């Protein structure tokens, strides 16, 4: 088994889940709360998790995690955490349970409303090391939240905000590819495209961090070379291993900052009138953002082309469109059911999102509107002069 110490301590290999008891003891967690969702409960993964817990069946479980974690769900889980006398958390699932658990870990030790800790509202320095210990166990290969310093949570007023701090990085990550073998093809594709987007956006971020860029390129290599096998052959152990590693690397590297894809997908994911999967949004938006950023990243596009085996003049945007099509992803926001009348508000929110600041090309409200319109219709990107 690989034990990786980078940003946090990571158990990575088939069978890594068996080390959970050791992690609980090392962190001093005697009364954990499990954060999951109803789908994981129905799939039997919570029962499987309990078999390796010292306390077994006596561990309380919160399964009310929505598709996109909300402030209301955080508060409901927090109430259970406190009433059960818990002293730490185990999050199992995709990015939603892990992000929700980060919100509980924060509010269990920090006073006041959740909103005050949001990054864009000056909350980063308010988050201290007192955050409750969290062990994250991903069952999808995409978000990288198990090693990420951010949580995306939709507040009661509908704003989807980022909560960012090195103290929010889970104290342990258990990455067991065995847990991803049953992931359905559509979810495998969507989460895999999330990992690919993380690696591309981080690599293109203008911040100077060569180690992060090297990790991003390695993650991109692994993902593009194995995502189609993972989707078409879900029991392919090598493909599942490589996709989980790609997702992990995406999470390790996006400390460098993301870009316009995430600046748009964050507020879109907070819409109440339609439930939108984060990875699918990223897949649809990525080609249009790549077109928008063309010429703003020095030689980095050439480097990505080389890693993908493309010719110097080939379009990265078209490569992603073709990959999306082969994976059965929707081609436009219209196919996803995104309401067009939300675009003015989404474009404004994108300019305020923390990911916008690290896009390689500054984007205005008008630019974001143009990207949304192109991604909605599938027509070429039209930018104002």
Write up this protein.
- This protein is of the alpha/beta class.
- It has 2 domains: 2-179, Rossmann fold; 183-377, Up-down Bundle (Dehydroquinate synthase-like, alpha domain).
- Helix content is 46%, strand content 11%.
- The chain is built from 15 helices and 9 strands.
- It has helices at residues 20-27, 38-42, 45-50, 71-83, 95-107, 185-204, 210-232, 237-253, 260-269, 278-293, 300-308, 316-327, 333-336, 343-352, 365-377, and strands spanning 2-6, 8-12, 32-35, 61-62, 88-93, 134-138, 150-154, 160-164, 172-175.
- The strands form 2 sheets. It has a 7-stranded mixed β-sheet with strand order 1-2-9-6-5-3-4, with helices on both faces. Strands 7-8 form a two-stranded antiparallel sheet.
- Helix 9 runs antiparallel to helix 10 (278-293).
- The radius of gyration is 20 Å and the shape is globular.
The CATH H-level superfamily of the largest domain is: Dehydroquinate synthase-like - alpha domain
**What is the helix tally?**
15
Distance between the termini: 55 Å
| Overall 3D form | globular
β content, as a range?
5-15%
H and E string: EEHEHHEHEHEEEEHHHHHHHHHH
What low-confidence regions span 5 or more consecutive residues with pLDDT below 50?
Answer: none
CATH class of the largest domain: Mainly Alpha
Reading side by side through the largest sheet, how are the strands ordered? 1-2-9-6-5-3-4
CATH topology description of the largest domain? Dehydroquinate synthase-like, alpha domain
Mind telling me the C-alpha Rg? 20 Å
Under the CATH scheme, which architecture of the largest domain would be assigned?
Up-down Bundle
Average of the residue pLDDT scores: 94
Helix content: 40-55%
How many β-strand runs? 9
Name the structural class.
alpha/beta
Number of domains: 2
Largest sheet: 7 strands, mixed
């Amino acid at each position: 088994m690989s034990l990786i110490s980078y940003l946090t301590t990571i158990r990575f290999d088939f069978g890594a889940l068996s080390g959970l008891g050791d992690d609980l003891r090392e962190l001093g967690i005697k009364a954990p709360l499990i954060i999951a969702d109803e789908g994981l409960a129905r799939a039997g993964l919570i029962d499987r998790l309990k078999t390796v817990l010292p306390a077994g069946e006596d561990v309380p479980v919160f399964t009310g995690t929505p598709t996109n974690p909300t402030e209301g769900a955080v508060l409901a889980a927090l109430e259970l955490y406190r009433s059960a006398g818990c002293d730490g958390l185990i999050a199992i699932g995709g990015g939603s349970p892990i992000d929700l658990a980060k919100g509980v870990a924060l509010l269990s030790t920090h006073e006041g409303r959740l909103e005050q800790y949001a990054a864009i509202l000056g909350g980063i320095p308010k988050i201290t090391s007192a955050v409750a210990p969290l062990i994250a166990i991903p069952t999808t290969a995409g978000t990288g939240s198990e090693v990420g310093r951010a949580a995306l949570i939709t507040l009661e007023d509908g704003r989807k905000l980022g909560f960012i701090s090195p103290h929010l990085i889970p104290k342990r990550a258990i990455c067991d590819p065995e847990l991803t073998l049953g992931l359905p093809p559509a979810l495998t594709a969507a989460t895999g495209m999330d990992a690919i987007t993380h690696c591309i956006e981080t690599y293109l971020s203008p911040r100077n961090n060569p180690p992060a860029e090297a990790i991003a390129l390695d993650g991109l290599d692994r993902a593009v070379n194995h995502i189609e096998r993972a989707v078409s052959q879900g029991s392919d152990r090598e493909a599942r291993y490589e996709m989980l590693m790609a997702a992990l690397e995406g999470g390790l590297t996006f400390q460098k900052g993301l870009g316009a894809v995430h600046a748009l997908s964050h507020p879109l994911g907070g819409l109440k009138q339609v439930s939108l999967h984060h990875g699918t949004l990223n897949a649809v938006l990525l080609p249009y953002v790549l077109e928008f950023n063309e010429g703003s990243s020095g030689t980095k596009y050439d480097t990505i082309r080389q890693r993908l085996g493309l010719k110097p003049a080939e379009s990265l945007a078209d490569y992603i469109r073709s990959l999306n099509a082969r994976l059965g992803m929707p081609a436009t926001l219209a196919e996803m059911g995104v309401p067009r009348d939300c675009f003015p508000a989404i474009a404004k929110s994108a300019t305020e999102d923390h990911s916008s600041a690290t896009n390689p090309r500054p984007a205005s409200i008008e630019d974001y509107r143009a990207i949304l319109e192109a991604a909605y219709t599938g027509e070429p990107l039209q930018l104002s002069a």
